[in-house]
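User: I'm putting together a small comparison set for a docking exercise, and I want a reference complex before I start. The sequence is below, and the ligand is nicotinamide-adenine-dinucleotide. Could you produce the 3D structure with the ligand included, as structure tokens?
Assistant: Of course. I'll restate your input first, then give the structure tokens for the complex.
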Amino acid sequence: MTNVSEKSKLTTYGNIINGKIVQAKDGAVADSIDPSTGEVWAKIPSSKKEDAELVIQAARGAFEGWADLPARTRGDYMRKIGDMIPEYAAELLELETRNNGWVLDEYGYLAEVLKQVWYDAASAATLVGGQGRTVQMGTGDFGFTVRKPYGVVVGILPWNAPLFTFTIKAAYALAAGNTVVIKPAESGAVGSLRYGELISQILPPGVLNVISGSGREIGDYLVSHEEVNKVSLTGSKATAERITKATAHSPKSLIFELGGKSPNIVFEDANIEQAVHGLINGIFTPNSGQICVGGSRMLIQRSIYDEVIGRLKELMTDKEFVKHGNTLDTTNTMGPIANEAQFKSVCRYIDEASKDEYEVVFGGKYGGQEVLPGQPEFADGYWVQPTLVKVADNSTKLAREEIFGPVAVAIPFDTEEEAIQIANDTNFGLAAGVWTQNLGLAHRMIDKLQAGNVWVNTYARVGADLPFSGVKESGYGTDSILDYSQEKACVINIG
Ligand code: NAD
């Protein structure tokens, strides 16, 4: 295992092109900042269009050979990548923590999920990727379909969960026979560059490539390139709009996994203690609310509203329960915001909470000196206190906009109908949580909630065994093998 803390300090990571580590042609690099301290801890390539061209040509050059392999052989490659994960898990998890500020995943849950996705893609390669359907045409014609890959897929990653989003895009796209270019967000690039290096050592050259650079510099070039056939973005609605415009002249198949303003709804018959922990895990710990499915709107039935708020406050102001600090120390429970731009954005929302229409229940402070007083090493880190704000209704700014930080609103409701009305009163539709012991109520909520994912008496349960998508402005398409292959319809006249 590589000790990242010692070895990678100010290491310059490179793009992965055609199986090789390559710096940007003009040698430009950008800083990778540790969000807990604000210090530079590694360097990453600052790629330009000429580098983007190289990476696309590498993927294009490898496509035919990769697509022509039997699906089973591609599956064998996916399994080998899954087998590789445990050996490098400690290193990859540490890089992820340095990148996104989530407290180190002591038990390696993330590594286990990554491994399982690669194994799932291995099975999917043969079960789905290599198979089509037969159709009874009834006209003397025999109809059938074959599944074909799209070609070159560009996967664009957000900074909050680089390794997970890398994996769900690359694994299924590769299993289906596409070749792949991954572009991580700059503030989450180091883990992706190293992960890409490890994966590319297993695959034929050019099948999986990684390029680091700013979205503004190389984003349009990558997505609009005529040699690119599919783009899968996990990111914001603003970027989805830019990609839609950039690809207008050369239409491509698009997957958009976008943001959310998800309701986490507690009914009076719920197991209150279980629900309170579900509310906390949904938006505060362990990722400081930087998760697309964050349960940022807590809808609580009025009869239990004070009790639930009281218990939330008790836990979230308990210094043993909420422990900020060194993100590599697994006894801490909450990390910082992942990068400076997002930190400033979250701070603006916390400032908004001082207006008359809000009542801050707990939190409301930000900055290393405020959140971690007396610990100068964290003074310049992007620290924010978990913050809960009471709002009278769903119309306020804090109840409507995606904050993407540890800031939630609490909204009371009286009836099931009102809960549904408030929950659906948003442009987003990524996820929803429901806490109740009533099976009928749970099913009615599942039926009525406008969300791609609904969890009952649990929250944020995602994995390789279920699809993951949004509705409304939360996007469309899933990073599954079905979405990375297309059916070709064939008919043979059999007389
Ligand atoms: P972002 O949209 O700012 O950036 C996402 C990626 O797009 C980055 O790699 C960026 O460099 C790239 N990009 C920027 N401009 C581009 C352009 N013109 N062309 C191509 N690529 C471009 O999003 P973010 O701030 O990194 O991530 C936070 C957002 O992602 C939130 O809205 C969050 O909800 C969402 N998210 C969604 C999911 C999901 O699965 N639904 C998961 C995680 C995050």
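The chain has a mean pLDDT of 95. The two ends are 64 Å apart (CA to CA).
User: Thanks, that's exactly what I needed.
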